[in-house]
């Protein structure tokens, strides 16, 4: 029994290295043949994938200084914007000029003035738009006056019908004589329901018009 065990151990000790050596030789010969530089190797042919020619870009190059320039709005108080609009003859489509809070000369149109009549929460937090009470329904609107449109403003107040012309609220182009100035800034009765101290003396400061270069 002891002799058999010794024989097995001897076979393992001397046989294992020989087996490993034969295994390595078999791998080398199988892949490289009997040459030392693997020139006889039967490796698969290397297929090179050609690089396609790049298609030229067709989009226009982005140039410096070609981006759209957005004109900045001017900062102005309601009193200044309204007074210059009225004193300029209250134009609808034509521009009028005013000085903003930074001393810049700016120009605007009626579209810049209209939010003062049609936008809620503008004169103070929680304020209704002027046109909420002064609207095109002359029969029920406050003071029978329509402030929701340019034509309605020019038609004035205390109108007897939608077709009628009422009392001029723009003072004929004289801001100091206008009812608008009297009610908003002199007597400070409007906007209706304004809490004490909620509205600045010159009204809210808004963004309107654009700055212009004066020669």
Q: How many strands?
A: 4
**What is the molecular shape?**
rod-shaped
Helix content: 25-40%
Q: Which structural class matches the secondary elements?
A: alpha+beta
Series of H and E elements: HEHEEHHHHHE
> Helix count, per DSSP?
7
The major sheet is characterized as: 4 strands, antiparallel
Report the end-to-end length measured between terminal Cα atoms.
122 Å
Question: Could you tell me the strand content as a percent range?
Answer: 5-15%
Estimated radius of gyration:
45 Å
Overall average residue pLDDT? 82
- Strand arrangement, major sheet: 1-4-3-2
Quaternary structure state of the chains depicted:
single chain
- Poorly predicted regions are 66-70
Structure summarized in a few sentences:
The chain is of the alpha+beta class and about 220 residues long. The protein has a domain of about 140 residues. It contains 7 helices and 4 strands.
Describe this structure in words.
The chain is α+β, with helices and mostly antiparallel strands. It has a domain at 73-211. The protein has 7 helices and 4 strands, in the order αβαββαααααβ. Strand 2 and strand 3 (105-108) form a beta hairpin. It is rod-shaped.
């Amino acid at each position: 029994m002891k002799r058999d065990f010794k024989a097995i151990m001897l076979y393992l000790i001397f046989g294992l290295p020989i087996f490993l050596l034969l295994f390595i030789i078999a791998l080398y010969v199988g892949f490289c043949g009997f040459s030392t530089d693997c020139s006889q190797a039967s490796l698969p042919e290397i297929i090179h994938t050609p690089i396609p020619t790049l298609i030229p870009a067709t989009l226009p190059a982005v140039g410096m200084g070609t981006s759209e320039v957005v004109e900045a709005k001017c900062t102005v108080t309601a009193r200044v914007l309204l007074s210059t609009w009225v004193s300029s003859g209250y134009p609808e489509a034509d521009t009028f000029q005013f000085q903003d809070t930074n001393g810049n000369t700016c120009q605007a149109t009626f579209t810049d003035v209209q939010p003062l009549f049609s936008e809620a929460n503008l004169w103070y937090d929680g304020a209704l738009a002027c046109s909420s009470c002064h609207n095109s329904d002359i029969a029920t609107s406050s003071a029978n006056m329509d402030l929701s449109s340019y034509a309605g403003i020019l038609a004035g107040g205390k109108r007897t019908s939608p077709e009628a012309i009422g009392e001029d609220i723009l003072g004929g182009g004289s801001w100091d004589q206008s009812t608008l100035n009297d009610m908003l800034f002199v007597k400070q009765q409007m906007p209706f329901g304004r809490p004490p101290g909620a509205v600045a003396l010159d009204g809210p400061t808004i963004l309107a018009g654009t700055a212009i270069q004066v020669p």
